[in-house]
Amino acid sequence: MAYLNKVLLIGNLTRDPEVRYTPSGTAVADLGLAVSRRYRTEGGEDREEVCFVNLVVWGKQAEAAGKYLKKGRPIFAEGRLQYDTWEKNGEKRSTLKVNCERIQFLGTSGKESGGGAGPAEPRAAPSEPAGEPKSAGSNEMENDDVPF
Q: In the chain, what are the domain boundaries?
């Protein structure tokens, strides 16, 4: 039997990226992503359901995220689910997050670039299986409809 652990998400950042470095010098960024689903109820009422997801990005992608991404920016994220558990003050805790293999910057808000297409900025490329990226590079586009 084969198994598959693959996640593809498009959403808006809920906070600015938090970049830190491992003892070996590898950059790691923590990001929060809001992913929406719009639907209509049986009664005809339009609804929106929002799911908040924690992401982890590695290497040059993490550095680019810290440099170019801000709260509210839309991104595409591709990765795998990772379940972490730990104990704090005698209580068992856990979290489910996405360990990103690739992120792509999807746009900027009009406030950042003053209108029109934004400047070219790095876009993360696919990474090695260990989670570290190979390269970065991108085109930025305007998005005035960021809800944050």
A: 7-112
Tokens for 73, please give them: 């920016």
Per cent of the chain over pLDDT 70 is: 72
CATH superfamily of 7-112: Nucleic acid-binding proteins (2.40.50.140)
User: Residue 66 in 3-state DSSP?
Assistant: helix
**What global pTM score does this model have?**
0.69
Nearest to 17 by CA among 64, 49, 59: 64
Structure tokens at 82: 């990772």
Tell me the C-alpha distance between 104 and 72, whole Å: 14
State mean pLDDT over 39-61.
94
How far is it, in rounded angstroms, from Cα 106 to Cα 141? 7
